[in-house]
Amino acid sequence: MESAQSMAITSFDDMIQSELIERLETLRRVSQQNAENSAFANFIDEVDAAWKRYEAGTYGICEVCDGALGADRLLADPLARICLDELTGEQRSALENDLQSAAEIQRGLLPKRDFAHGNWRVDFAYHPHSIVSGDYCDVIVEGDDLYFVLGDVSGKGMAASLLMSNLQAIFHSLLPLRLGLDEIAERANRLLLRSSLSNQFATLVCGKASADGEIETVNAGICRLC
Ligand SMILES: [Zn+2]
How many angstroms does the Cα of residue 64 sit away from the middle of ligand 1? Predict the structure, then answer.
């Protein structure tokens, strides 16, 4: 039992270290281009402060009440410094407003409902589990063809929804290039890898419905549709 516990602690430690190292590497990569940007400078300070807390052994402890922030919270936001209990009513309501705006933006990313393109008729149902989600549903018209994407980003909430919107932008940039579906999936995979955290991933099916009635799909990890 004890060894199982210490293994769990080590693996959480490894994950946090790798999250922080990843952020430092990102900072190094882009620091030259963004030296004048104040939001970027704040971000550098926050990552730096997280490292200092880590080295001092105070990482993951709420700076207000000394309570533990919890593994889930830290994996979702490795730079977190206070627990949500410390938020004032005003801060909580600001956070709720942010979530509502994010949900609205996410709904705006959904494709058009109930329309026809050539001989194809398109409709879908989308029921996210929470206010924002990592579910990705898309239909993109390119000439006579229809492309559709159904995907699921790992995890829940804001982090998953951010990656989902990134995935959507990737597909909207790649599909007009009219590459083969396998090439599109490979490029999307590489691009997503650059912007995701090491514990995030996505599974999806991307398909092309041609005007002649043919459907071609590429399946990246959604086993039920194999
Ligand atoms: Zn606290």
Answer: 5
